[in-house]
Amino acid sequence: MAQVSVYNMEGKEVGKMDLLDDIFGIEVNEHLVHMAVVQHLANMRQGTQKAKTRSEVSGGGAKPWRQKGTGHARQGSTRSPQWRHGGVVFAPVPRDYSFKLNKKEKRIALKSALTNKVAEGNLMVIDEIKFDEIKTKKFAEFLNNVNAKKALVVIKENDANTILSARNIADAKTALADSINVYDIMNAKTLVLAKDAVEKIQEVYA
C-alpha cells in the first residue's frame, strides 16, 4: 500500500495517507490509457466539417466546348474537381467520431493513470481545499504554495468558490472526484487531490 504525504493549503506537511493498491498501485496498462485518451478526444470532436462534391456545387450543366477539334482536352463540366470552383474529390461530410470503451477497460485505464501519477511523484494530497470567497489570486497562491504546475485539482463536491477561483488560471483545471477522466489526469503535470476526494475515489472505484 502506497503512502503519501498530506499537505495543507500553505504547503506544509500535516500527516500521511495510505492509498489503496487496487486503485493507485496497479500494473499500468499503457494501451488502455492510450485508448481512453483517443476516445476522449474523439468524443469531443463536433464532426461538422462539410465540403461540396461535383454534384453539389452550382453551375456546370453545359459542356464547356465540343468534344473534338478544339485542341483542348475533352471536358464534360466546368464543375469537375480540376476546375476552379469545381467540386471537391472525396469531400468530407458530417460524421460522428465517437466510439465506446468497455466499462472494465475504462476503469483499468483510469486506475493506470492514477498509478502513473503516484509512480512519477506527481500526485499531491491536500487535507482540505476550501476558499471563503471567489478569488483567483488566492487560488494562484495556493498552487504556488504546494508547487503545483499545470495542475488538475480534484475536489469531492461541487464547490463554486473553488471552481470559479480556478476558472481564469490557464494552467489549472478543476474536477469532481466522481467525474475525473484519463485525459485530464494525463494532460496535467501535477494531480492535486483533496483528502476527501481521495476517499471518494477509493469508494467509487474500489
Give a brief description.
By secondary structure, this protein is an alpha/beta fold. Helices cover 34% and strands 16% of the residues.
User: Into which percentage range does the β-strand content fall?
Assistant: 15-25%
Trace the largest sheet across and list its strands. 2-1-3-6-4-5
- Unreliable residue stretches: none
Instruction: Please give the CATH architecture of the largest domain.
Output: 3-Layer(aba) Sandwich
CATH topology annotation of the largest domain: Ribosomal Protein L4, Chain: A
CATH superfamily of the largest domain: Ribosomal protein L4/L1
* Category from helices, strands and their pairing: alpha/beta
Our Rg estimate from Cα atoms comes to 27 Å
| Number of helical elements | 7
Query: What string, H for helix and E for strand, traces the elements in order?
Result: EEHHHEHEHEHEH
Describe this structure in words.
This protein has 206 residues and is of the alpha/beta class. It has two domains: 2-46 and 99-205, Ribosomal protein L4/L1 (Ribosomal Protein L4, Chain: A, 3-Layer(aba) Sandwich); 50-93, no CATH class. It has seven helices and six strands. The protein has helices at 21-24, 30-44, 103-120, 136-145, 160-166, 182-187, 195-205, and strands at 2-7, 13-19, 123-126, 151-155, 172-176, 190-194. Strand 1 (2-7) and strand 2 form a beta hairpin. Helix 4 (136-145) packs across helix 5. The chain is elongated and about 90 Å long. The two termini are 14 Å apart.
